[in-house]
């Protein structure tokens, strides 16, 4: 962490700042297309318009664990590492998604083994986070304590009247403040009170979930589940992947590719002998819920749900994680009263 430092930049000067960056580095920002916000490369400040922006459809994990990433190529016994990719600036990342990356960091970069591909991608990204001014329809980040962030970013922007308040989060971020467009200030950004329609009570949640592992609620809910993996594909903290060998038509040539894999899909637990350990949809649904609300907390000390609400938004049968937890909690309370 760096010593706290705060700056202001006028919104009228912000385009000049952006234009000075896009000439040097790939600048990625939320862009609205066909009713959805997603991260896209912009070439000029004129392409940046975040009016009405709440969050992106897909989380920023795609820049850290990209689909179809070529780890290595081989040619008649010679192995060549894949390309690591160039540096990028990622603007507009919401606090919940920064927390999501902090989860990925714990999984990929801590412990006895670290993921070299992830580490290189992580170091190539400069994060310009952006505090929220409104909560989305399905957001519940306040419940998960992820609507504010104190680490994991290089610069943190907050809309404040005619200015952006900027908080420096790393030495890398400090290098971008050399411009005369920034004015130093001694005060922190004013907090915006966000109104949330969704809530998830986390009090004693892992214990309640574990005590409810055999609840019939999971079977009932799984009858609605399509096992389509929409929830896992758009979750900021789902990191599972598969390693594939793609042979070339030319003898002795091929690629080793990393692709995402999802626990909601039946083949996910398929092993030699055609054995599948989670055949039922109920088992796979439970795995998703327990990973987010139990196992992550136990293994990394942090819930693997950041309250972004994407899984609610994208679910075609409207399964709502906050409502399912409410059912489990109510059933658990009734059992306690009876015992």
How would you characterize this protein structure?
The radius of gyration is 22 Å and the shape is globular. The model has no long low-confidence stretch (mean pLDDT 94). It is α+β, with helices and mostly antiparallel strands and 339 residues long. β11 (241-247) and β12 form a beta hairpin. The protein contains ten helices and 14 strands. The longest helix has 20 residues, at 281-300. α5 packs antiparallel against α8 and α5 crosses α10 (321-338). The strands form three sheets. An eight-stranded mixed sheet has the order 3-2-6-7-8-9-1-10. Strands 5-4-12-11 form a four-stranded antiparallel sheet, with no helix packed on it.
Beta content comes to: 15-25%
Terminal Cα separation, in Å?
49 Å
Number of strands: 14
Backbone CA Rg: 22 Å
Please identify the structural class as seen in this structure.
Answer: alpha+beta
Question: How can the largest sheet be summarized?
Answer: 8 strands, mixed
Helix count equals 10
Q: Classify the helix fraction into a percent range.
A: 25-40%
Order of helices and strands: EHEEEEEHHEEEHEHHHEEEEHHH
Shape: globular
Strand adjacency order, main sheet: 3-2-6-7-8-9-1-10
| Uncertain runs | none
Mean pLDDT: 94
């Amino acid at each position: 962490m760096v010593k706290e430092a705060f700056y202001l930049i006028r919104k009228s000067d912000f385009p000049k700042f952006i234009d000075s960056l896009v000439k040097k580095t790939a600048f990625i920002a939320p862009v609205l297309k066909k009713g959805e916000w997603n991260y896209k490369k912009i070439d000029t400040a004129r392409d940046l318009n975040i009016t009405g922006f709440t969050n992106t459809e897909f989380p920023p994990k795609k820049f850290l664990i990209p689909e179809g990433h070529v780890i290595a190529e081989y040619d008649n016994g010679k192995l060549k590492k894949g390309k690591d990719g160039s540096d990028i600036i990622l603007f507009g990342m919401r606090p919940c998604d920064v927390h999501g990356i902090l989860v990925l960091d714990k999984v990929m970069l801590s412990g006895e083994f670290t993921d070299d591909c992830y580490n290189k991608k992580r170091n190539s990204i400069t994060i310009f986070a952006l505090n929220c001014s409104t909560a989305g329809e399905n957001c519940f980040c306040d419940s998960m304590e992820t609507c504010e962030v104190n680490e994991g970013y290089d610069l943190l922007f907050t809309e404040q009247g005619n200015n952006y308040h900027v908080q420096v989060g790393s030495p890398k971020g400090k290098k971008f403040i050399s411009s005369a467009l920034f004015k130093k200030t001694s005060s922190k950004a004013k907090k915006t009170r966000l109104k949330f329609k969704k809530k998830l009570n986390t009090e004693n949640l892992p214990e309640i979930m574990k005590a409810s592992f055999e609840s019939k609620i999971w079977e009932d809910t799984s009858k609605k589940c399509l096992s389509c993996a929409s929830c896992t594909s758009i979750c900021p903290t789902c990191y599972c992947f598969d390693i594939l060998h793609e042979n070339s038509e030319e003898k002795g040539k091929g690629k080793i590719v990393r692709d995402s894999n999802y626990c909601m899909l039946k083949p996910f637990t398929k092993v030699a002998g055609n054995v599948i350990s989670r055949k039922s949809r109920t088992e796979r649904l439970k795995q998703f819920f327990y990973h987010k609300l139990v196992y992550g907390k136990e293994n990394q000390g942090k819930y693997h749900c950041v309250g972004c609400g994407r899984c609610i938004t994208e679910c075609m049968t409207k399964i709502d994680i906050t409502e399912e937890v409410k059912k489990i909690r109510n059933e658990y309370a009734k059992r306690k009263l009876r015992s």
